[in-house]
């Protein structure tokens, strides 16, 4: 199976939407993750140290982007030894296919991590470790640097066009109570271009970059906006893994029937 070529991501809600603060439904976040997310302020991206930081982990596969995949051949056998992955506006990565193992846990962590792959039937199975910390969503839902990703890349044909389906399973012992599964699709696009993304740091005047934007626990007045917008009970902010399953819709209907109050913040224990 050849995955080489240029691919453009198919626009979905996950790709196009800008998630609201407190929109953690569908994420199996534990209490530590929720507390860290509560302190997040979007203005942190204005800090010089953050301005050029690329997306990391599962989130990088869902970013609106063009992807170019190139085979790297072994110089002796001419067999594929690795795949080079290039995303617009993100770091390049390599997936080693030559059977090598992963480095020790104390090895350097990067934005793209260390990836090895092997074929399972018609799917490429990729294991990625040694990632830097980041976010599962662009609203402060945190990903730790101990996350391990299991990825499946499947080439398929649909209505006369070629697609890549990219499934990512994130196991995060620090911030998730169970694995998080996300997926995205790329359409073959031979005219697509992976554009360079130079980044110039802009330093604010008057030493403002010495302050780190954040909220102290219990002071983030934006947390309830998502629940209020959709008339949801406040516990949807903190219910974590339960919100991933269809049974949760029945629970929401029962809460509405009981006249649950509008969300006003992150408080209480969801268990």
What does the secondary structure layout of this molecule look like, with pairings?
Elements: E1 5-9, H1 13-16, H2 31-38, H3 48-51, E2 66-73, E3 80-87, E4 93-96, E5 114-120, E6 123-129, E7 134-135, E8 142-143, E9 148-158, E10 161-171, E11 180-188, H4 225-229, H5 247-257
Parallel strand pairs: 4-5
Antiparallel strand pairs: 1-2, 1-11, 2-3, 3-4, 5-6, 6-9, 7-8, 9-10, 10-11
The largest sheet has its strands arranged as 1-2-3-4-5-6-9-10-11
* Biggest beta sheet attributes: 9 strands, mixed, barrel
Rg value: 20 Å
Mean pLDDT over the residues: 87
Helical residue percent band: 10-25%
Strand content: 25-35%
- Please state the oligomeric state of the protein chains shown: single chain
- What class, by secondary structure content? alpha+beta
Total E-strand runs:
11
Low-pLDDT runs of 5+ residues are: 262-271
H/E element order: EHHHEEEEEEEEEEHH
- What is the approximate shape? globular
Amino-to-carboxy terminus distance? 46 Å
Number of helices: 5
Summary keywords:
271 residues; alpha+beta; nine-stranded mixed beta barrel; two-stranded antiparallel ribbon; 5 helices; disordered C terminus
